[in-house]
């Protein structure tokens, strides 16, 4: 049986809930397709998230990595195409606000996802789950984690499926945010399981 490292994030900004945290905790230890899931929840902290991810990665030594984050206001499940070498934006959970900082000094400007993003979108849509490729993961923690993961794989010459997927908000969040597009947690979870089944 192969191993999949599946990560989510704790709640952040003014959201009291993060669906990626619940999904990762629920799927941890389960088997889907060819993979046993090793679920890890990462902090929304520029100084800790990437380091914790890379530590877990080396400890678990997975055959594939899917990192997840919530993108409030998105209406589809969106595999990210590219991560860029920039940290910028809103405060993290420690109050840190980076401005135009590189994720990695002297790192490549960008790395492309190593997940089968087109196939993932096709499989999700065949199941009736709205999905599309996204061409920007932003400059906040999700991009930071995606870039750091792909940089580490590049530095160590690893060619496993690996990348980042943003998911929409869930009902738990929309309860207090009337304008927020949101999905049931169970559908988001079905989407993640479908995605894992696309991996060989
Ligand atoms: N989404 C944020 C960080 C944590 C999360 O779930 C992002 O898109 O950067």
From TrEMBL:
The listed locations are: Cytoplasm
> Which of the seven top EC classes does this enzyme belong to?
hydrolase
**Pfam families documented for this protein:** Peptidase_C15
Active site at: 80, 142, 166
Question: What Enzyme Commission number does this protein have?
Answer: 3.4.19.3
Q: Which domain of life is it from?
A: Bacteria
Cite the entry's keywords alphabetically.
Cytoplasm, Hydrolase, Protease, Thiol protease
What GO molecular-function term can you cite, just one? pyroglutamyl-peptidase activity
Known catalytic reactions: Release of an N-terminal pyroglutamyl group from a polypeptide, the second amino acid generally not being Pro
- Can you cite an annotated GO cellular component? cytosol
GO biological processes: proteolysis
Tell me, what does this protein do in biology?
Removes 5-oxoproline from various penultimate amino acid residues except L-proline.
Q: What HAMAP family is this protein classified in?
A: Pyrrolid_peptidase
Q: Which family is this sequence assigned to?
A: Belongs to the peptidase C15 family.
What assembly does the database describe for this protein?
A: Homotetramer.
Protein name as it appears in the record: Pyrrolidone-carboxylate peptidase
Lineage at the top is: Bacteria, Bacillati, Bacillota, Bacilli, Bacillales
| Gene name per UniProt | pcp
């Amino acid at each position: 049986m192969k191993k999949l490292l599946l990560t989510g994030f704790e709640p952040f900004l003014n959201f009291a809930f993060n669906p990626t945290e619940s999904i990762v905790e629920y799927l941890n230890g389960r088997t889907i397709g060819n993979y046993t899931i090793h679920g890890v929840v990462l902090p929304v902290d520029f100084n800790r998230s990437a380091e914790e991810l890379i530590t877990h990665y080396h400890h678990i030594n997975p055959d594939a990595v899917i990192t997840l984050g919530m993108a409030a206001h998105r209406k589809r499940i969106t595999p990210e195409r590219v991560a860029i070498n920039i940290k910028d934006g809103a405060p993290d959970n420690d109050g840190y606000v980076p401005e135009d900082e590189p994720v990695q000094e002297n790192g490549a400007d960008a790395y492309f996802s190593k997940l089968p993003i087109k196939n993932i979108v096709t499989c999700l849509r065949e199941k009736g789950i709205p999905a599309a490729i996204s061409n920007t993961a932003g400059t906040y923690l999700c991009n930071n984690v995606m870039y750091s993961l792909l940089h580490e794989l590049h530095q160590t010459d690893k060619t496993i499926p690996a990348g980042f997927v943003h998911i929409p908000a869930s009902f738990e969040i929309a309860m207090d945010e009337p304008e927020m597009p949101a999905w049931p947690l169970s559908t988001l979870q079905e989407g993640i399981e479908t995605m894992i089944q696309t991996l060989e």
